[in-house]
Amino acid sequence: MVGKAARGVKDTLPHMRNPAFSENATMDLPSIDLGSACTVPPPAWPPLCQPFAALGPEFSVPVAVSPLPDPMLVACSADAAALVGLQPPRCTEEERLWAQAFGGHVDTLSGGSRATVYAGHQFGNWAGQLGDGRALLLGEWPDAENGRHSGGYPAWEVQFKGSGRTPFSRMGDGWAVLRSSIREFLCSEAMAALGVPTTRALCIVGSTRPVRREELETAAMVTRLSPSFIRFGHFEHFSYSGQTAALQRLTDWVIARYCPQCAGQPQPALALLHWAVARTAELLARWQAVGFVHGVMNTDNMSILGWTIDYGPFAFIDAYDPLYTPNTTDRSGRYALGRQPAVAHWNLLALAQALLPLIAKPDDALQAVDGFRPQFVRAVQQQMAAKLGLEQVDADDGVLLQDLLDLMAANRSDWTLTFRHFSRLSADAQAAIPPELAAQFPRQPQAFAAWVRRYRARLQRERRSDQARAQAMDAVNPVVVLRHHHAQAAIERAQAGDFSEVRRLLAALRKPFSPDAAHAAYAQPPAADAPPACLSCSS
Ligand code: AMP
Ligand code: MG
């Protein structure tokens, strides 16, 4: 039935709140009676367009979504929903409709779905053709505020991850399990709240479909949003397979959509490389500053936008150890926390090599990639200076910082809490070191006290008061990051059918710098004797 109340709330519908969809605003929507708790019409999913298909048949193939049986909405990110003008579900019935839609049961959302082809270097070796083995590009939705959310890009590509086999699945089954989907969902939104460029996660839908991994699990789907899901590996695929015309088309497409300023340059492909180098340097600085270990920095997991993509065996570091990786399959520690910048540089070389057919002189490409190191160093120095409350970077700050990092490694100091506690340290040489900060250096209290004397001497060159500096530091040093043990607790509850902990944790991750008192427990590091997070690539 179409009730009056239902029509009355039409202007809160997702498509109505997005001026880009105003054409549909007069649509007379079918409505259903949802009971007294929720009398709203069903959500009208904004129409998707699929410009990627126009690139040509070499780039993607149409693949239908395989819907999840018994779809259940595990969680929805209100922040991600707002990017595309959607209102998150407000009642059980709306949750059911979301689960149907983002579990793959609504044709208008999956009609034009495509799997794209890419390749990549995995653990330093050429892996050949890969591609979307379990992800499908549904199309794109306009940014709800004309590019304000997306950093100037006009639209958000919408992708299902875990929606069944594709021609690029190789030996895989095309599914994603609930455990890894929850991790991707939560971390995408956590990183966004921390200000780290990242693909976004709109929602996660669970199901009863059994999936065999190390043990029997169930399938889930994450709906991801990003201005683009193009990876370094897309360029590698067309370059190494000798499809130079397609490589040129892909390059032109990326430039036209994401960095149009490169189009006017004498060598647009070279300009694109410079752009990707700069963005990747900035991204890596941000990863290092928040203590994020990606875990699988293969070139197929590197976004051309310089955004974090493909959350697998990642972790936020607890006790600082630059050689830590959560990925159990990475036995040599290739992708360990402290090696990430060097790996990003290596990956950029692979991108440069892929672009060589479009660049006149190889030396120019090399020179562009050589720009990574100074740009990364500048960016990370700025990030770390801000974490320590320094307004400008001085020549001797690098040594001061490195000495602190050495002390933190030797004392297994908690990365997040140590920096957060620094804001309580007065510049006054007579003031005591706050006990919670001193407690992070249990093995070398005197060496730490000596370091604090140097830091306080450095603070004399700063103009801000203790209070002003503390405020600035608290705005860049988070209290809450997605620690493995909290994610694991939420996953175990969800596997038992209770999604409330995923939702609570998401609420905490939305406010990493000033969590509500109710979320204080999420700041807690794991028990001192807990083994560090160890994750396999299986997901
Ligand atoms: P990843 O290690 O998740 O970045 O994936 C590497 C490649 O394997 C990509 O081409 C993925 O699409 C593919 N892949 C990973 N898991 C699966 C799966 N369960 N089914 C099909 N393809 C997969
Ligand atoms: Mg991947």
How many strands appear in the DSSP assignment? 12
Q: How much is the radius of gyration in Å?
A: 24 Å
Through-space gap between termini = 43 Å
Query: How would you characterize the largest beta sheet?
Result: 6 strands, antiparallel
Which ligands occur here?
Answer: adenosine monophosphate, magnesium ion
Structural shape: globular
What is the count of helical runs?
A: 19
Can you tell me about this structure?
This protein is an alpha+beta fold and 539 residues long. The protein has a domain at 392-461. The chain contains 19 helices and 12 strands. The strands form 4 sheets. Strands 2, 6, 7, 8, 9 and 10 form a 6-stranded antiparallel beta sheet that branches. The chain has a two-stranded antiparallel sheet with strand order 1-3. Strands 4-5 form a two-stranded antiparallel sheet. Strand 9 and strand 10 (216-226) form a beta hairpin. Helix 13 runs antiparallel to helix 16 (445-459). Mean pLDDT is 91; it is low at 1-36. The structure holds adenosine monophosphate and magnesium ion. Adenosine monophosphate (AMP) binds at residues 130-134, 168-169, 172-175, 296, 300-301, 310, 312, 537.
